[in-house]
Design a protein that fits this description.
The complex is a heterodimer of chains A (about 50) and B (about 200).
Chain A: H1 13-31, H2 36-51
Chain B: H1 2-7, H2 25-28, H3 33-44, H4 47-63, H5 74-93, H6 120-129, H7 132-143, H8 148-155, H9 159-176, H10 193-204
The chains are: A mainly alpha (about 50), B mainly alpha (about 200).
């Protein structure tokens, strides 16, 4: 009854495509530019820490 | 000579060691911003909600850095903070998942390509229709390369639960696209209505 998808040598073609597409979704997101506000936030946190 | 050797290790034994250039785990936070944001967008489905979530995560990671165990995976640690923040915010605000049609992709359904490849925009749309729990497990295990064990630890559930949740999430995703994840040969029968359902759900919104 238990399914071991990863261990299945001929994992269904649909599953394969789903995984490919998932990677693409994630990689596309990774490529997006990180907004400046995060680095600014880190700089502010650091200043605050050193200012004390 | 011994002086020269000591010189290789600036800051050793002196008070300056606390300063930034002797790498402090806090200085590593910046290396994970793009993956944090990618994970946040996957969870929230919305870049602006994701950015708020990343911001909260950065502040929490910064102020709880003493809880980070040196030598362990910082990305996993920050992902855990991010998802915990996401779910506790969601419980607090009780704001239900926003209409995915208005989100990120805002794409139209495409006709299936002749070679049977899933059209990426359809896929993305279907992905945004999944529950956050399903998106989470698919991104962690299927896309960002965490092991089932790491994922289990991050979510705080058993390994077996990660596996069954992942397989249910894949199935649901296939269903949303009118495919059958378990058996390719059946993909043409019985499921054809899904596409039109999804198309009409737009006007219902």
């Amino acid at each position: 009854m238990q399914q071991h998808m990863a261990a299945d040598p001929k994992k269904s073609r649909v599953t394969e495509q789903i995984d490919e597409n998932l990677k693409r979704v994630y990689e596309d997101l990774l490529k997006e530019e990180v907004p400046d506000r995060f680095k600014e936030l880190l700089a502010r946190l650091k200043d605050k820490e050193q200012g004390k | 000579m011994t002086v020269a050797q000591l010189g290789n290790n600036p800051g050793a034994g002196d008070v300056v060691a606390e300063k930034a250039d002797v790498s402090h785990p806090r200085d590593e936070i910046v290396n994970h911003l793009s993956s944090l944001r990618a994970f946040a967008i996957s969870l929230t489905g919305s870049p602006s909600a994701a950015d708020d979530l990343v911001q909260d995560t950065i502040v929490k990671a910064w102020s709880n850095i003493d809880k980070f165990q040196a030598g362990t995976n910082m990305q996993a640690w920050m992902f855990t903070i991010l998802r915990n923040t996401f779910y506790s915010d969601r419980r607090k605000h009780r704001r239900e998942v926003p209409d995915p049609d208005g989100l990120h992709a805002a794409s139209l359904f495409e006709l299936p390509e002749h070679d049977g490849k899933l059209a990426f925009r359809d896929f993305h749309r279907a992905f945004l229709h999944l529950s956050a729990e399903h998106r989470e497990v698919l991104i962690l295990v299927g896309a960002s390369g965490f092991s089932t064990e790491q994922t289990a630890e991050m979510i705080g559930i058993a390994v077996g639960t990660v596996k069954s949740r992942t397989s249910r999430a894949r199935k649901r995703l296939a269903e949303l696209m009118g495919l059958d994840a378990g058996d390719d040969s059946k993909s043409h029968s019985g499921r054809t209505t899904d596409t039109s359902n999804s198309a009409t759900s737009r006007s219902a919104a």
